[in-house]
Write a structure and sequence with these properties.
The chain is α+β, with helices and mostly antiparallel strands. The chain is 32% helix and 25% strand. α1 (16-27) links the parallel β1 and β2. α1 runs parallel beside α5, α1 packs parallel to α13 (401-421) and α9 (282-295) crosses α12 (334-345). The chain is elongated, with a radius of gyration of 26 Å.
């Protein structure tokens, strides 16, 4: 039986972070192998951006980090090594031209995610990276405070000088992103924050509200999340879409990470205040309604409110005031219009939480960032062990920030692992 091959860099996971880690290591001349449990690479990447693949975002450095509310500061070094600009130039060299759309979102010009995955596969092959499919890693080989390889579910041993764990989070498990990296990290002594849903729709406690407003879309709304005692927890502005179970749309997805974290901490009484007309002041709105009532005294309250907000929203708002919604406007007093104005500016909706993790776009939680060196993405606990991508406790908003975070952390981890394996360890 021949001598077992020892790899310089072994990458676990063939998503965006894993593929970029393998590319970076291969470019450094390291003998690199990539282990993927699916039958093909980039399954989750292939469905991002509605299948168009929102690769990155053109936001400058500080603004970019602000769009990574979950421990984004860990990525300063990674983003300096492989920035959004670097990402576009990299893919251009691979034959994938990109275009920038609204809010800085960057997509492949062809509008297809598969061209991105295929370009990366060709590049990995050109670099001589060995790719092993349908292999799930079950154990890390740990000895003397170092990681020396992995063992697969079928008992196959891969020896390596370094290992990069880029096995993804736990969202969209149908793509293979089912939290496989968490037990690996935990058995190596790392703290793993419980995975929670992020970028996921919200659920109302009262399903009738969802049914009454289902399908209603507001292009601009301000959402204010409050907790116990009415304490303000988070504020987001943007489009919202009411569904039969609750609220979706970009603003709701952004605020969902805070709903998940507060719910997991046991915080009760979560409430969402929806400002449906954020560019109108409450007093001005009340005065406008009062003037309209004076001009149109025969209109009912609900019909007058309909002139200000969409019909179904008007019905819900009018149904929340003590006055009879079909009462004539002439009979509604000043206080009625103040109440209507307050509801339009702060429709209070009790939350039951979010949709489940399996429906989330990203995972909130993962390997504790305090146990990872941001200069190299290496473990602070185990020599030769690196982490990249969504397996880490890092999460971002929509718009290309999550994929760029995966690309950048993967690139830095792969390059650092290659340097370590060559004996040229990065300076402390």
């Amino acid at each position: 039986m021949g001598k077992k091959q020892t790899w310089d860099v072994l990458v676990v996971g063939g998503g965006p972070a894993g593929m970029l880690a393998a590319v970076a290591a291969g470019r450094c001349g390291a003998r690199t192998a990539l282990l993927e449990k699916n039958s093909r690479l980039g399954r989750k990447l292939a469905i991002t951006g509605g299948g168009r693949c929102n690769l990155t975002n053109s936001a400058p450095g500080e603004e970019f980090i602000k769009n990574i509310p979950g421990n984004g500061k860990l990525l300063f070094s990674a983003l300096s090594r492989f920035s959004s600009r670097d990402c576009r130039a990299f893919f251009s060299r691979l034959g994938v031209e990109t275009v920038e759309e609204d809010q800085g979102r960057v997509f492949p010009r062809e509008g297809r995610a598969d061209v991105v995955v295929e370009a990366l596969e060709r590049h990995l092959e050109a670099l001589g990276v060995s790719i092993f499919y349908s292999l799930k890693v079950e154990e890390l080989l740990l000895e003397g405070g170092r990681c020396l390889g992995v063992v697969t579910a079928r008992g196959r041993v891969f020896q390596a000088k370094t290992v990069v764990v880029a096995a993804g989070g736990a969202s969209y498990p149908a793509t293979g992103s089912s939290g496989d990296g968490y037990p690996l990290a935990a058995r190596a002594g790392h703290t793993v924050k419980p995975p929670l849903p992020g970028l996921v729709p919200l659920r109302f406690a009262d399903s009738r509200i969802g049914r009454d407003l289902q399908g209603l879309s507001l292009q601009e709304a301000v959402l204010t999340l409050t907790g116990a005692g009415g304490k303000k927890q988070a504020v987001e502005r943007g489009e919202v879409i009411f569904t039969h179970f609750g609220l979706s749309g970009p603003a709701a997805l952004k605020i969902s990470r805070y709903v998940s974290l507060l719910s997991a901490s046991g915080e009760g009484g979560l409430r969402l205040l929806v400002d449906t007309l954020p560019d109108s002041g409450e007093d001005d709105l009340a005065a406008r309604l009062l003037a309209a009532a004076s001009d149109q005294p025969r209109k009912t309250v609900v019909n007058l409110v309909r002139q200000i907000v969409p019909e179904r929203l008007a019905q819900v708002v009018a149904g929340m005031i003590p006055e009879d919604a079909v009462k004539k406007s002439a009979g509604a007093g000043r206080e009625t219009w103040r109440q209507v104005s307050r509801l339009i500016k702060g429709l209070a909706l009790e939350l039951a939480g979010t949709r489940p993790l399996a429906e989330a776009m990203v995972t909130v939680g993962g390997v504790s960032t305090g146990e990872v060196d941001p200069r190299t993405m290496s473990s602070r606990l185990v020599g030769g062990l690196y982490f990249a991508g969504e397996v880490l406790d890092i999460d971002a908003y929509t718009g290309g920030f999550n994929i760029q975070a995966a690309f950048s952390s993967g690139w830095l981890a792969g390059a650092s692992a290659a340097e370590y394996s060559s004996g040229r360890r990065p300076a402390d």
